[in-house]
Amino acid sequence: MAATPTSVPRVGNGPRRVGDGPLFRRALIGTVVTVTLLLLVAPVALIVARALEAGVGAYWATLTSPDTAHAIGLTVLVALVAVPINTVFGVSAAWAITKFTFPGRRALITLIEIPFSISPVVAGVAYLFVYGLQGLFGPALQAAEIKVMFAVPGIILASLFVTAPFVARELIPLMESQGRDEEEAALSLGAGGLRTFLLVTLPNIRWALLYGVVLCNARVMGEFGAVSVVSGNVRGQTNTLPLQIELLYQDYNTAGAFAAASVLALLALVTLVVKVVLERRGAGRRGGGH
Amino acid sequence: MARRVLPGLPLTLGVTLFYLALIVCLPLAALVYKAASLGPEGYWRVVTSARAIASYQVTVGSALVATLFNVVWGFALAWILTRYRFPGRRLLDAVVDLPFALPTAVAGIALTALFAENGWFGAILADVGITVVYTPLGIMVAMAFTSLPFVVRTVQPVLEDLDPAVEEAAQSLGARDGRIFTKVILPLVTPALLAGTSLAFARSLGEFGAVIFIAGNQPNSTEITALLAFIRLEEFDYEAAAAIASVMLLAAFVMLAVTNVLQARALRFTRTD
């Protein structure tokens, strides 16, 4: 947090800085904004245009067709299971890492971030070799007649892998900077561990926690690569919404594909709005990315 | 007295380690174990087959071009977002995160439809003889789209923290803008720019959803490595799928190490207090 004492809002009569020439400035803003509109905004505009091309009636009919409606339901179900699990994991990991000192903390943080570095396809393939028929537990699972791969549990597991770091990575830097004084004070006044967490820690981290949960949810609902490997793509059974988009697209049902895509695009826009709102409350925004 | 007065270490650390072992470590170990079952010779044959090598070339080559494009575009975006005030700046700032928020499959079909021969951009580009869809160019477009935010979000905070006094000093010594940019600003931003570049490149190497729709997926020309692993699975050649996935895993770990070094360096540069 390097405060720059000289940089009072430098609009207007601040010192002239590099690149402040009016011509250069206008040309640069114009070019960058145009490229960004063409490459980032146009795709979203196109989804809306294509989805509504055949009219609102047709749009609604596609979304409520049994397979697509099922895909939406399955996507929500997976998120309802995966997001809470990764939230509990994220809070546990952040608590252990930031409230205590023990050897290997740095390594543990790196380990938590590993799923961000790995291609989702690799994650899906890896899960196949644990729970698939060719995998470590495959034969045992089959003997017990438990189906994990090419079924909903596999989709949930792959989603858990891909989104494991989201909540933890928002909480760790924040809780590290907050230290443990407040919790220690609460304990010394006689509060129990759980009470301390709920009444002291939680209020301090709520926005960052919500921020992590929102990003985690967006990614769970939109995950494609990992889920695509483990789902088995059974229509009306193991297709999440992103997989349903691919299926409709391959069926040359572009209107259907774009209708389904528009639901996820809407989710993305809502996520962005929530993100901006939460960032104004101090969550997120540390550079880097995911 | 021990510093550890807070409760919950055994529980939270236990949950964390158990979860990471089950969800992250076990599958990756199983993948490596499966790949190893080919034996050194068989493994080498699979990962150096002509089709595999062609897929590495397509993936790495496209990722390089996409990343270079994003270094320029991302830097310019971070620059105008931090140094200029203009209407719509906050909106533009939010739009930068769109590739993170938009599911990759959605981005994939949208970009394909945009650049298809009858699409909004494809029709215009076709007139000048450029085909994007089902060519390596399409792969680059998809990779550039999905990895843009990495560069912007890594460079942005550093540009924000640049002390105007540094520029003033250079100005008072008579340096022109171009010279101040290359000799003063760029060196200060370079560590962050490199870190962001490496993040964007790593993401491009592993990108799947956005790419497969717009790539032609033809072996030896527009087939990315992630897709090859997927295809081997569908052919029930599980060992080969594991071997190819393990190459991607290795590349991911190398990029993770590179990024960590670059980020540590970038942090050292920005920490002025």
Brief overview:
The complex is a heterodimer of chains A (290) and B (273). Chain A has 290 residues and is mainly α.
Describe this structure in words.
The complex is a heterodimer of chains A (290) and B (273). Chain A has 290 residues and is mainly alpha-helical. Helix content of chain A is 73%, strand content 0%. In chain A, helix 1 packs across helix 13, helix 3 runs antiparallel to helix 12 and helix 7 packs antiparallel against helix 11. Chain A is globular, with a radius of gyration of 23 Å. The N terminus of chain A is likely disordered. Chain B is mainly alpha-helical and 273 residues long. In chain B, helix 3 crosses helix 10. The mean pLDDT of chain B is 93. The interface between A and B is large, with 111 and 113 residues.
**End-to-end gap of chain B:** 32 Å
Indicate the CATH topology of chain A: MetI-like fold
- Main interface by residue count: A-B, 111 and 113 residues
Largest sheet of chain B: none
> How many individual β-strands of chain B?
0
| Alpha-beta classification of chain B | mainly alpha
- Using only C-alpha atoms, the radius of gyration of chain B works out to 23 Å
Distance between the termini of chain A: 22 Å
CATH topology of chain B: MetI-like fold
Question: Secondary structure elements and their pairing?
Answer:
The complex is a heterodimer of chains A (290) and B (273).
Chain A: H1 22-52, H2 55-63, H3 66-99, H4 105-117, H5 120-131, H6 138-143, H7 152-163, H8 165-178, H9 181-188, H10 193-222, H11 225-231, H12 241-250, H13 254-280
Chain B: H1 9-36, H2 39-47, H3 50-83, H4 89-95, H5 98-101, H6 104-115, H7 122-127, H8 136-161, H9 164-172, H10 177-206, H11 209-214, H12 225-234, H13 238-270
Question: What features would you highlight for this structure?
Answer:
heterodimer; A: about 290 residues; mainly alpha; MetI-like fold; 13 helices; disordered N terminus; B: about 270 residues; globular
